[in-house]
Fold:
Amino acid sequence: MRLFLLALRNLMRNKRRTLLTALAIFIGAAALVVLQGFAKSLLDVMVDIIVLSKSGAIQVHRRDHIGSDNPLKLTMPHDPALVARILSVPGITAVAPQIGFEGVISNGSEAAVLKALAIDPAVEYTVCTKRLTNLTLGSRALGAGQRHEREVLISKPLADSLGAKQGSTLVVQSAGPHAPLNALDLEVVGFLPIRHFSESKRQATVTLSFAQELLSMKGEVTAYIVGVSNLDEVDQIAARLRTALGSDYDVRSWYDLDTRTREATNNYRYALGFVAVVLFVLVAAGCINTMLMSVYERVREIGTMLAVGVRRWQVMLLFLWEAVALGLFGGLGGSAAGYLLVRWLGWRGVTLRPPGGELTIIRPNVGFGFLCAVVGFAVVSTVLAALYPARKAARLRPVDALRAT
Amino acid sequence: MLKGMPFGPLLLPPLLRIAIRNVWRNRRRSLLTVLALFLGIGILVSVRSLLSGLQATLRDEVVLSQTGALQVHRVGFLNSVSFSLELDLPADDVFLAKITAVPGVKVASPRISFPGMANANDTTAFAVFTGIDPRREFEVCPRRAELISVGAMLAQSGPASTILSHDLARLIGVAIGERATLLANDKDGVLNAIDLNYVGMYGQAHMPPPEKKFGFVPLAMAQEVLRMGPRATEIVVAIDKLDDAEKLKPLVQAAVGPTYEVTSWRDVAAFVEDTIAIQNIVLDVLGGIFLLVALLGIANTMFMSVSERIREIGTMMAVGVRRWQILTLFLLEAMLIGVSGALLGAVVGSCWVLYLGSKGMLLRAGIFDKPLHVHPTIGPGYVLSVVALAALGAVLAALLPSLRASRLRPVEALDSL
Structure:
C-alpha cells in the first residue's frame, strides 16, 4: 500500500506527462465503449427483428423436415399435450404452431408462386410480438377485430403485381401431403413490408385453420415456434428442449436458422477484437516511452532507494504500480466518458439504415460487464507495457546509479 | 557537428540538420514514438486495402454473376413480381444493335424470366426459369460459369439443354445427362411443354434464400415454350468499365426510348453501396482514433524533449538564435518523427498489400455460397493523404511544447538545472 501511494506521488510529480499518457488510454477506452454501444445495439435490433417478427427464438420441427424434398409429409401433431411438454421446459415462455407451405396465388387472371406461412392468431403474438406491428400502414393483423379465417397478409410487391388492394379477394392453390390440388379464396387484410433484399417478395401469412383446410392437414402442423425469457440463454434452453423432446424432433435456435445474422455477429466480434489489439499496441508504445523516461530521470533516486535497503522487487513493483494507476486513471475516465456518450446517444436515439434495409432507430447501450472489461484491458495493457522499463529500473546497480547525473 | 550520424554532412538547411541531430540524439525515445505511428499507419493502410479489395470483390460478385452493369426492361416490369410476360421487349438483332451502338457498351444479352414446372420421374416442382443466350450471357455475367458446380454450360446449339439449381434437381430426382420436361404457360395461358437435357447443376446445397428452385434454358427454347417470338423480358448490358455505369445509363436510355427503363447495378443492388459506405465511415473514424492516440505520443515526447533541453534552449537564445527559429526547430523535430513513422508504415503496409494483392486471398463471406477471391488494393492518393495527415497532426501535436520552448526567458532557462 505504501508503495502504491509512493507510485501515485511519482505520477503527480510530472502531471502533464501523466495526463498525456492517460489521455491516450482514455481515448482508446472511450472508443471501445462507444463502438460496442453502437454495434451491439445494431446487432440487437437485427436479432430482435428476426426473433420477434419472424422466427421466434427457437423452432421445433419433425426430424428431417428441414431440407426434406417433401416437407409437408413430415409433420407434428397439433396437440395440447405436445405444447405442454414444450412449455414445461424452464426458460420457455410461449409456444405457437405454424405450417409453412408453397402454392400459387392468383387474382383470376394473373398468378404467382407463393411462400405461405400459416399462424394461429390466438397464440402467435405471444411468441412473435412484432408480427402484429410489422405491417405496412393501414394493415390489419390476422385475427384482429372480428375473427375470420379466410384472411391473408401478402407482401406489398406481390400485392401490387396482382393489383390487390385491402379487401380484394385472391385465390390460393396448393396440394397437401395426402390430398390433391385444392383452391380456396381469401380476403386481403393487409400487407407485409419487405425490409431486406434477401427476403422473398413472394410471402404471405394466412391463418392456421385456413392452411389446415386447404392442405387437408387437420390436426397437423409443421413447426412450433418458441419464445424464451432470456435470449442470451437461448443455447442452454434449446439444449434442455432437445433433451425433453427426444430424437424425433429437430430443435434449432434462431441463429441456426439465420446464418446471415450469425455471420454478422461473428464478424463484429472479430472486428472489435482487432480494434482492441491495435489500440493496445498504440497505447502500449506511448506507455513504454513514458515509463522509460521516468526510469532515466530517476536513476539517482533509484540508486538511493537501493542503497538504503529497498529490495529490487519493490523497485519493480513501484513502477508497475505506477502503470496500474495510469491504466486505471485512463481506463476509468475513458469508460465513464464513453458510457456517458453512449447513454446520451441512447436517450436521443440514432437513426440509421442497415444495408439494404429500412431506416431504423437504434438506442446504443452498453453493459456494466463490458465497461469493467475495458478498464481491466487498459490496466493489463499498461502493466505489460511497463514490464520492460520496470525491470530495467530494478536491475540498476546502486553504485553506478548513484554516480549517474 | 554531424559526427556519429549515419547521414553524413548533407547539404541541408542548418535548422533541419540540428533537428535531425536532436531526433537522433535520443534514439530509443524517437524510435518508440516512430514505432507507434508506424504501427498505426501500417495497420490502417493494410485494413483499408483489404477492405477495398473486399468491396471490389463484393461488387464484382453481384455485378458479374447476377445483375450485369446495366439492365433494360419495359417500364413497369421492375415493380411487378408475377413475371408478367406482357411487359416484354424486343430481343431481335436490330434492337440489340441500338444498345451496342452506344460507345462503351460491350454486349447486350436478352433474358426471359418465367415461372414454370420441371417434371421428371413423375415428380413435378414449381420453379423460376431464366432463358439466356449462352454465349452472350457469359460475356455479361462471366462469374455465372463459376457457379455451375457439376456438369457443363448450356450448349449454344444442338439439342435443348438446361441447368438446374441443386435443390430443384434433387427435388425432381434427375442426374446429369438425364432428361427433364419443362412446362410453362404462354401469354395466352396455354400450357406448353418441352423436353430438355439436364447438363449442369447450379450452385450447391444450402444456397442462401430467397429462391432455391430455379433453372436456366437457352433463350430460343424459352421463346419457343412461351410462344414469344424474338422477344425477351430483360436485356442485360455489359460495359467496358464498370465505373462508367452511371454515365452510360442515360445514353442507353436515349438509345432505347421512353417505353423502356434503364437501370444500373447500383439501382438493383443498392445494398452493396450501402454496405460499402458504412464500412468506409467506420474505418475512417477508427483510423482517426488510431492516429490521435499515436499523435498523443508525439506530444508527450516533445514535452519531455523540451524540459530536458531547457538549458540548451537558453544557450541558443543567449547566442542570438531567434525565437521563431526555436519554434521551427521543435516543429521540425516533431515533423521528422511524424513523417518517418508514417512513411515507414505506409511503405511497409503498401508492400505487404502489393504482395497480398498479387497473390490474392480466399475469404468466406456470409451471403455468398462460395469463398471469395480478394485482391487487396490501395491507391497512392490514400497513402499520400494518410502520410500528409500524420505530418500535419505531428506538427499540431508539437505546437504546445514548441511554443513553450520558444517563449522561455534565456536568463531563467540558463539558471535551471
Summary: Chain A touches chain B through 53 residues (CB under 8 Å). The radius of gyration of chain A is 31 Å. Chain A has a mean pLDDT of 85. Chain A is about 55% helix and 20% strand.
